[in-house]
Amino acid sequence: MSTSDANPPSLYAAREPIFPRRIKGHFRTAKWWIMAVTLGIYYILPWIRWDRGPNLPDQAVLLDLGNRRFFFFMIEIWPHEFYFVAGLLIMAGLGLFLFTSAAGRVWCGYACPQTVWTDLFILVERWIEGDRNARIRLHRSKWTGEKIRKRAVKWTVWFLIGLATGGAWIFYFTDAPTLLRDLLTFQAHPVAWITMLILTMTTFLFGGFMREQVCIYMCPWPRIQAAMMDEETITIAYRDWRGEPRGKQSVAGNGDCIDCMACVNVCPMGIDIRDGQQLACITCGLCIDACDEVMTRIGKPQGLIGYLALTDETRERKGEPPIPTWRHVLRPRTVLYTTLWAGVGIALVVALFLRSPLDVNVTPVRNPTFVMLSDGTIRNTYEIRLRNMEGQARWFSFAVDGVSPLALSVEGGQNARIEVAANETAHVRLYVTAAPGTAAATTPRSEIRLWIEGAPVPGIKDTTDRVAKDTVFNGKGS
């Protein structure tokens, strides 16, 4: 047995830390703005107030799991309306398909939370330890007092960012000012502390230490994106027919690429875009900024690295002009995704405005299907589930259309009327009776319509709501 067979090479390679160089340019500026906007929305949104009247929370965005409701400004979603959440998730997926099909992994490069927080952590690292070369030297140096001090400061700031991130997340699930007071006085529920700690540590580890490994090894999207892209997708590419062979500009026959490695040094994923499309590329555009800066400095045209479709790459190789951008974007695949996305969105908006203000479920009791009372009256029983979706107690009354005459009463009372507490669901039995000899009593099966009417609530709802539910009244037959 040979030595190589006895000691096969390891399939594991230790991670080489990546220290992206600072760069200025259009794409870097866009990333700064997107980072500021997305982080601002995330941290500020739980503190925005929205007046919904008495007995209702005044937090604009609130996932009230205790009362099983979701508040988003003027919209209130109840558990039975989960299809709204499902629709939003479908729209998010279709939107991701659309943007990837049109312009590659722009979501990954600009708006993905992993990208945004990694950018923020790298910014902190640069402020404390210096730019790329200083950070590399510090990484390779021995553990001195200076290195310990800088690492301690950096990790402390990272931890505080992670703490703010975890804290902001739990504020979406309860009243933010109340929870903050409970946290500061150490009176918060243990679930809040555990959730915040988990999110703090995941942010600290993912943004500070794992970084590109999350995108490459943990995220499924890099492996799915190929199905969304084709030769018309606009993505980042290196114009090798213009840049090769690489080398000094003073050497005759060399291309525009001077092999300065600027595109590699700024890449947060640590890849070389000149090697072609790669799974790790998040199309953030920083390599374009770096290359354009170098091209301007050496007096060459910009665009050696740029957003480019495969069809344009083929045309440019032949010296033909590129296809207009709009033709890459407006093609059958993107039109299909846009149509589906818009269709789901329109359906959700229509459903939102047409949804009933009352949530009522009517279930006939089948065992027995009817009861004959001592005087010959036929009685049917219906299980009614009625949800009061207003912020105050509300009276609801019942009526019936169809065969007549029919009488209604609620179990435990003489009237067909009940009061339901604010934001509560009532379960009640409704009795519908037919006098002896009437059509309903002598007909085995009669179609009827139950009407449930919600009375106005002063100061909250000044109109009457009505909902109809079709059901069946069972008689004894002739």
What are its keywords?
about 475 residues, alpha+beta, 3 domains, five-stranded antiparallel β-sheet, 18 helices, about 45% helix
Task: Describe what you observe in this structure.
Helix 2 crosses helix 5 and helix 3 packs antiparallel against helix 17. Strand 7 and strand 8 form a beta hairpin. The chain folds into three domains: 202 residues, no CATH class; 106 residues, no CATH class; 116 residues, Immunoglobulin-like, CATH 2.60.40. The termini are far apart. Strands 6, 7, 8, 10 and 12 form a five-stranded antiparallel sheet that branches. It has 478 residues and is α+β, with helices and mostly antiparallel strands. The protein contains 18 helices and 14 strands.
Topology:
Elements: H1 3-6, H2 26-44, E1 61-64, E2 69-72, E3 75-77, H3 83-103, H4 106-111, H5 113-129, H6 132-140, H7 145-170, H8 176-184, H9 190-210, H10 212-218, H11 221-228, E4 235-238, H12 240-243, H13 262-265, H14 286-297, E5 305-308, H15 310-317, H16 325-329, H17 332-354, E6 359-364, E7 371-372, E8 378-387, E9 394-402, E10 406-410, E11 417-420, E12 425-434, H18 439-442, E13 445-454, E14 465-474
Antiparallel strand pairs: 1-2, 2-3, 4-5, 6-8, 7-8, 8-12, 9-11, 9-13, 10-12, 13-14
Tally of discrete structural domains: 3
Which radius of gyration do the C-alpha atoms yield? 33 Å
Strand runs, count: 14
Question: How many strands, what sense, and barrel or not for the largest sheet?
Answer: 5 strands, antiparallel
Which geometry do the CA atoms define? elongated
Low-confidence runs (pLDDT<50, min 5 residues)?
A: none
Percent in helix:
40-55%
| Classification by helices and strands | alpha+beta
C-alpha termini separation: 97 Å
Beta-strand content bin: 15-25%
Mean pLDDT: 89
**Discrete helix count:** 18
